[in-house]
Amino acid sequence: MTDMPARRSQIVPTLLFLPAFLLLIFFWCVPLVPGLALALRSPGAKGVWPSLINYSRLLGEQTFRHNLLLSLVYVVGVVGAATPVAYAASLLMTRNMRGLRWSRGLLLIPWAVPAVVSSLIFRNLAGPEMAPLTQLYRLISGQPNLLPLQDSFWAMTTVIVHSFWRSVPVMTLFLAAGIATIPTEFHEAAQTDGATSLQRFWHITFPLTRMHLAVGMLLITAFTLQDAETVYALTGGGPHHGTEVAAVRLFKEAFDYGQFATAAAIGSFLLAGGLCFMLLYLGSFRRTEVTL
Amino acid sequence: MKRGVHLPLVVLFCGFAVLPILWGIRTSLSPDPGAGSLIPWRLTLEHYRKILSQGFFYQYALNSAIVSIGSLAVVAPLSLAAGYSLARFRFWGNRVAPLLLAFPLLPAITFLVPLARYLNVIGLYDSLPALILSNSAFCAPFCVWMMRNFVHTVPVSLEEAGLLDGCSRFSLLWRIVLPSALPGLMAVAVFVFVQVWNNFIFAYALTTNQSLQVLPKAVVGFIGSWRTDWGGLMAMGVLTLLPPVIVFQFLQKWFVAGMYGLSTK
Amino acid sequence: MLKRRLIAVATLCILLLGVEGCGRKKLRVAHIYQPLAGPAHKLNFRWLNEIIRQFEKAHPRLGGVQMEQIPWDKIDAKSISDYRAGVRHDVIMTSPQFMPQHWEVGDLLDLTPYVSRWSSQRLDDISWSASWRKCEQEGVRLGIPTGVHTRLVIFRRDMFGQVGLDPENPPANLDELVEAARKLTRDTDGDGKTDVWGLGLYMGPLRATIELYFAPLLWHFGGELYDRKTERAVFASEAGVKAARFLDDCIHKYKITPPWACSGTYDDAIQQPFLEGRLAMAWGWGNYWNKLLEEKGWIKGLVPPTPDGREIKVGVFVTPTKPRAQFTNSWAISIHKLSKRPRDAFSFIETTLKPENLEVYPDAGVPVLKSIWAKKEYQNHWYRVWRQAAEAGRPMPSTSHYYDLADTVASALQEVILKTADPAATLKRYQDEFNDRYARP
Question: Is pTM beyond 0.80 here?
Fold first, then answer.
């Protein structure tokens, strides 16, 4: 592509790449290493290094296992709910309709709202007696005196609904980007062959947007897994650890209880969990061939 | 899908997206948010008045603006340069690039305390530059990846023509790549502005100075020890969410185009 | 072009850093008041500004004060995490509740050298309060309390008269309390539903349940929440079971407490209903609510206190348990261990502790200095009772895991009361779970 000799061709891209790289190294990696290393140090002023005591304590604790389970439920709930809705929304968005531009802007608003603000709005939506979500839950559950935020199940539901509300725009955007890259000839050809909308979706749209779906799901998973801020603002960990996902537990250990070694250990669990999800998504979505 | 189904569905989706915010607005306008009916009979601007009549609000808003725009000023050029280098060249950066997708997986809370210690050592703790740099680092991976994808879709022919004319790489970047990468940069701009304006965790962990507070942190301050002023809280929340939502609405065409990797021309 | 930009950016960075450098010379005072967040915060913020003004006027060469605002429920944790991060503060507001943790981490300066220079009269003036004792851990003085927040039982004098009870002779023990409450629980409009409840209690899932309702009863029956020596929770003792049973009986057996007292917030269950006339007596009434009574005209000239203050529609009496003890706490003021100017920091604290400043401190509650109590304005029945409550008051247990302990006990009680579970088994289960979580090997 260039006429420069091989040696020099490394300098220009390196110079261009370096500032961003250095920013990430200095503000992310450098603090992260001691941050995670603390997980291998036993807590207290006279800590011993290395030590696996934080991990053994956490894994032996029923509450922490519950934290991990809640994190899993949270991620699966949000991604599972957001994906179909995002597909529907992205299909709508990519239609060439006049006047759709205003709707596109509205549809994407949830992502633009500050997380703390939307958490508190949802907390208020499920808080007082006459609030809409409280009334809705009472109707569904048949318990006329239900206070959602005092009940583990409904509090968790509210947390998932809130994150789902926030995640749909991001996922929709990714999927819409993917759908827009599908040449219209594919759909036209399929239509002349007599394929229904559903068949067209399953055999053309879905396979060709796999990579976009994977990245979207990965991003949503990453944000949800680490998400302490929104859950903490909404329920504070819930009725007695009822919505205390691992990230909230991390936040509490670090900022409320001052137990940094424990917090670091939980952080490493979250990192490991995130990497597992990443491998899962990218692995299963690698195949992008489609048979016409 | 039949045409007639579209409009109601669109309305449904949009309603779903906007409804919680409408509730927030409703609470911020009602004199007694806890009691009363779903739609309050009397509306009041008292909560807004109490907030807007204080100098602190404007100071916090200014801080939020400085941090957001500052982060933008850092991330935009950095991600353009890095994204361009990844898209056009083959070098060691390409091997490192997949890791960019792994960065969002690192839990930010884990390294907040070491980051604070580290910033304190270099003398940046409890300052706006600390927030700007931390937020920039947080947004950078995604923006670099976005710019890389975007530059991929820009035809190389323009650059090759420039090279034949004898431009250096840097002036090439400035004169040819930048204009055609503008939609991508706008997408980055919107993304960074919204993300950083809304960020609470870095402000919480890295600043305590009264005059350096940002709006999301001020919102959380409404949750009191004995009772919470929901009306005031929602008013503060609405005021805080207005700038990112408005910026987003005005620039959403660019943002979406940037995400799609297409030119808007 | 690029070079010019780089120079501009570099200059900006240097300027910003320079500004920071200047800022560092100021005395850093960390507090909890967010002026935007409502009138209470605003008043306290104004008070703090007045203190700063006095301090800067008296010490013009000390470079001024920089205020730092940290949310009230995070300030102690932030002091600790900042200590670990090497970030310094000078003066910092703290909560006596966290003193055991502060002692363990060592993030607060020992104030003994400064306090030992006080006259014995001055020490005597302040050392009577529960918070003063709590702020000292293992001989290290970690903070100085700036007020007293205590609770007692409030009642409607008019309702007492209506059912033949003497407002001048309120219940002196639990049996009399229950009896009086029974008489006071009435259906005033004949629709078959109770309109006025005799005894307001709060048994929701929040810490207030433990602090104000379970703990006083637990102490009455001779128990404790936590044993510091063995570092184990001990609330599931026989005393605990009796306390839980009493609370449960108030709702289900004696029917003197409304069932809606088990949810919502402490405000929703006690303050609102009492002011609306739905409660004849309210246990756990906090002094921070007295202003509302003055606004309603139910007391006159008592908030702020004047020599002719009197009770009109309400009266107070100390919690009728054997130790007469209610949860009593306060805010305290401390010096951060990493402060480079402890002497200046203590000068600031001295300014704060001036009697004329403490007297008008909105967040003080009732006075922490005996000398203020001795004033004319406090020589009336109302304040005599509040003083008794403050003197008999007790703090919450000394454990680093206090928040978790309180949440655990609150959840246990929710199960006992809402799901009518067996108190003994339920309390024991939660106690074991808590102890297992924090058991030291």
Answer: yes
